[in-house]
Amino acid sequence: MLIKQIMDQIKIIQFFQENYNLFVEKLIEIQSGMVGDSFLVISKDGKYFLKIYGTSRLAEISKKNIDFYTKSLKSLEKYHLKIPRIISNNKNNLVSDFFWNPFIVFNFIESDNSDINKHEKEVMLAKTFTEIHKIKLDQNVERKETFKPHFSQDLIKWINELKGTHKDNIFTDKLWNLIKPVEEEIKNKIKELDNIGTKCQELPQNFVFCNTDPGGDNIIISNNECFLVDWDGAIFAPAEHDIWFYLENKDFFEEYKRNYPEIQVFKENITYYMYFRIFEDLTDWIYRIMYEKQSDEENEKDLLDLQTDCLIELNNMEEKIEKKYKTTLV
């Protein structure tokens, strides 16, 4: 391990102990991502999950939402939902300042999902969603869905800039070769997304507290219960913002509907959020490859993810949307 890494860990441990009055026996890095670094903190008092935010574009976007999502999670503790519990520091603050970077501590949720298959996990998740979505939060919140994609102008701007910079290095060249054949389609779909958002604004929406990224490592099975973690992108929005991910699974929606019978699903919402996810991810990957200092391995992975999760996903989108919507017509 490099000396710098050792020193950084020592600083983290000292800060944790001084600000949370918990003696650290071991600090284990779990993940280093574009939003920040995550650690398992082992103390004689238990295990904790630590997140320290970084300085990337995604991190800066997430930082703007910290106040909303941490206060929301804290207010939901009394309902005993399947969500992480925030640990306050010595000054009773939910967020600490670690060398000008947000430092947040949660209880650690131990995973034991080895015997749970994907289908069973999604059905369990449906129950977790309904328990969260049915809670009536104060609707006078600043972080509320507007159906106006925040990335639209940036995406078009960076695609246009890519035309003139793609010869600068091998990765922007590869990026342009992927984007060029679908440039006009992307720009047209962005305009369409804006139009769909306008239609969504006119619907009688029922807003709920949404995670917005309920997949992968953000789902943890522990003691035969399904927990939903990582609330960086939390927003007050229609339930479709969460559940569209799983609408191919008929059992998922039947379980969701059984626990939340009053829910009304709109095809326009499904359409909006499916396109929203693709173009939000596309915007970030384009920016990272063009402007953020990454390793060759990181750039190669971003190029692959951009192609598989965005460009290929654009194929037959209307058919995919229709299939998901039909599941809800029960």
Provide the low-confidence segments as ranges. Answer: none
Radius of gyration: 21 Å
Q: What name goes with the CATH superfamily of the largest domain?
A: Aminoglycoside phosphotransferase (APH), C-terminal lobe
**Number of H/I helices:** 12
Reported CATH architecture of the largest domain: Alpha-Beta Complex
Explain this structure to me?
The chain has two domains: 3-107, Phosphorylase Kinase, domain 1 (2-Layer Sandwich); 118-327, Aminoglycoside phosphotransferase (APH), C-terminal lobe (Aminoglycoside 3'-phosphotransferase, Chain: A, domain 2, Alpha-Beta Complex). The model has no long low-confidence stretch (mean pLDDT 93). It is built from twelve helices and ten strands. Strands 1, 2, 3, 4, 5 and 6 form a six-stranded antiparallel beta sheet that branches. The chain has a two-stranded antiparallel ribbon with strand order 7-10. The longest helix has 25 residues, at 267-291. The chain is of the alpha+beta class. Strand 5 and strand 6 (101-107) form a beta hairpin. It is globular. The chain starts with a helix and ends with a helix. The protein has helices at 3-20, 57-63, 66-76, 118-133, 152-165, 170-179, 183-201, 240-243, 250-259, 267-291, 296-311, 317-327; strands at 24-32, 36-43, 46-53, 86-87, 96-98, 101-107, 207-210, 219-222, 225-228, 235-238.
